[in-house]
């Protein structure tokens, strides 16, 4: 039987529909209904507890932390070198570090705060202030009104950057906690050296951030205040009671009910089906920068995740040696006559192993 709860529900529904179509199969249909175990989305989330003293999140089989960084528009050589040095020398090998760029439409509080210094005065102040506020609120809900012929996705968004990291740890020993605390200090110091300000995310901030990600309400411009329950697991506090997720062929449908009103949002996921044949490191930075270009920006709220894993250099060097020797041997046989590209591949792997050997 599949371990995927969504597949289990799909199989049960298919069996139920088939049973209802057949004559005198009501008993079987009732049996299928009785055996169905509806999955809870909150149970799929790994988050469990937060240790206030260490600032770490304690899950069933992992332990980790989360930071929020101030987004920066652009970078220079010193920032790139500082972050590159952190990734190559400070992070444990084989454990992913995730960087999340979130574009949020919950900007109502920020609009009101920003308009306080640009308020109107005089007899019609209240009326004009309401018009100004409505103008920016509508821009956040849809987009700014533009002259005819200009179709640019100009809107208001709150951009936030998060860094998350977790490593396997079942016993949560004091040694593991001290090691993780030290890693947090090193990473924060590295970001500080790159002129990027960070702050730790505690349990209260965590359920608000993850709750906003999971319970997306396209009709809301204000964040929902959540009360932290110290006696309940974090995964249950991140999901609304009215949360309803439907799986479609090409997308997910998220439904919520808030203040007596229903909302529906369509969720799409984009990822690389395969690695590109030609890729340049600077293209990645250009792609992120394009998000701030009026013509290339994304008007819908989104979450962009970049996962980085530092491989073990010794292991990778050994694999490169084996690959090079195999290709180099094939390039000197009749195999190269049928597959001419083997000589080029052998040369590329030879250059790669030299770079790995030189550090």
TrEMBL record:
InterPro entries to which the protein is assigned, alphabetical: F-pilin_assembly_TraC, TraC/Conjuga_ATPase
Any Pfam family: TraC_F_IV
Lineage: Bacteria, Pseudomonadati, Pseudomonadota, Gammaproteobacteria, Enterobacterales
Protein name, per record: TraC family protein
PANTHER family: CONJUGATIVE TRANSFER: ASSEMBLY, PTHR38467
